[in-house]
Design goal:
Rossmann fold, NAD binding, binds uridine-5'-diphosphate-xylopyranose, UDP-Glc/GDP-Man_DH_dimer, about 45% helix, N-(1-d-carboxylethyl)-l-norvaline Dehydrogenase, domain 2, alpha/beta, oxidoreductase, EC 1.1.1.22, NAD(P)-bd_dom_sf
Length: about 450
Amino acid sequence: MKIAVAGTGYVGLVTGVCLAEKGFSVSCVDIEERKVDLMRSGISPIFEPGLEELMIKNRKKLNFTTNYKEAYKDADVIFIGVGTPEKHDGSANLNYVYSAATEIAESIEKDCVVVVKSTVPVGTNDKIEELIKSNLAHNVKVHLASNPEFLAQGTALKDTLNPSRIVIGVEDSIAGEILQEVYKGFDAPVLVTNRKSAEMIKYASNDFLALKISFINEIANLCEIIGADIDDVALGMGYDNRIGNRFLNAGIGYGGSCFPKDTKALHWLANFHDNELKTIKAAIDVNENQKIKLIKKSRKYFNSLKGLNVAVLGLTFKPGTDDLREAPSLVNIPIMLEDGANIKAWDPVGMKNFQKKYPEGVTYCFTIEETLKDADLCFIFTEWDEVKEFGLSKYRQLMRNPIILDGRNCYDLTSAKKANIIYDSMGRETINSVKGSLV
Ligand code: UDX
């Protein structure tokens, strides 16, 4: 079976490489010559642990090209894995999906299955099918399937090679059979449903996880007020397997390329159909507020950040990625700059991307020590292992004022007490500080 993949972002490239790992010959198509050259030389254009190793291992089965006509013309299965970024009104921008579909229609010379992996609003698959059918250059049959992707950045290979489930949304049996053949070598439950349900499974899953995070964040905020401990609360809740213990980590809100976009897109879609998704709206609102929670906390210690040395640990939206999309750092650092803080920032992989956005006003450091030196206040935005493993006593030694505002609960409270630092985290007791006191 010959496979082609449109797009070499997270979804497209990971899909292509994992299918090659499972034994298929895969042509990965991208419009950018520069990216294709990189991939041909074994370099991944995205940061994803293990991806380059797998690209190199499977190089004989992988072809990277800008020549979509060549790649699509005799493919049996073509995956569409291009981006669907958020538009200003919260809806999904489908231009990349539609242009990939048009290119496929112009190129295919034999019957094939076109599989939409990109996250697209419910009903889009039908439009893609119409678009392909009306632009076909040859007299061939196209079977369209929705096959949403559930990978998370940082664990994309594991999530794709050992998926929690394989969802196949089809309107005809041929597409269903061929896709089940493709996934024969994967050990996961397969759900075959209609296309609209498959599209909805993706949105409902992401939005449910976003809701779970916003819920635990609200509970964490209340825990702080009433003196409960969110870690114990989440642990106690998680023992109930109807709730589950995952995605109950309180923090400064979710970011990334999916949850913010997919919550807004589903909310937009419901509105468009004169419907309101109140729970999703609440998840979005809670998240916006949560992102500035640490800045609000800082006002307990300082009236303003003007002239203060501020250390920032972590810039990416989560560890294991260099991605800054919707990261809390992007909301907080502009506020700090406006306040007049002297900012030093560290991130093991996200610094280069951040520096492109903020070339001035922030001093970028290569070590945590350098970042903390003489700081009056430290903000932790990402729970990198390097941060979690960094001894708390060193904060006291290095900082002018050892006040740590931890947005990701990287440390346990007993260690913080021993380290004699002011440690203010999410949904837990503040250590070594008189509540409401100003320094
Ligand atoms: C997510 C989904 O997990 C994945 O299934 C989907 O295909 C794409 O969207 P991703 O955005 O890569 O993946 O990261 P994820 O690990 O889910 O984290 C998203 C955000 O939620 C991060 O900012 C993370 O810090 C935050 N988060 C996650 C929490 O705040 N608490 C948690 O308990 C879990």
